[in-house]
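One thing: can you check what follows?
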Amino acid sequence: MSHLQNRSNSVFTIECQDIILREYQADDLDALHNLTWQPHFHKYLIGWNAPREQREEWFLNYEIPENERFLDALSRTGDPEQYRLRLGILLKETGEFIGICGTGIKDEVSPPNREIFYGISEPYQNKGYTTQAARGLITYLFENTNVEQLIAIAHLRNDSSNKVIQKCGFQYCGDVEIEGQPHCYYKLTK
């Protein structure tokens, strides 16, 4: 399903039916930046539509290095610690970068608070790709790390995201307010 050995020569991937989850690469920057400026994307993911210069700084100085720290921690202990993992969603058929999927600590809720998150380009919505991505990451985390529980949070009005979360087996636990906005809060146990 994926590989971690020999990190210096390999790129971390998780293969799914129609897509591949792949750790960010430097040449993904423009595709990621364009994705985050799609109106449906930043409507529900506050702060993701940053100027390109800011996106580039985050991407090169924080996101890619933190992916390395996440994967290095896993290879040593099986514990992702407090690190985030951000993956591109690529179409298997073409290699096109069509979305993001990741995991990290959600500080706005009490522990255990390792969440999964995702977003996909508008032309690729409602094709099952996001559900494949989320399921692929969930399976990877439960089979290859010490993570015992995951959370997912979706804006109350984000029907598509709430459906993906429910299809992945998460249980609704109530509503939570984040940045003044109502969100559905879900949990999934290994």
The chain has one domain: 13-189. Confidence is low (pLDDT under 50) at residues 1-7.
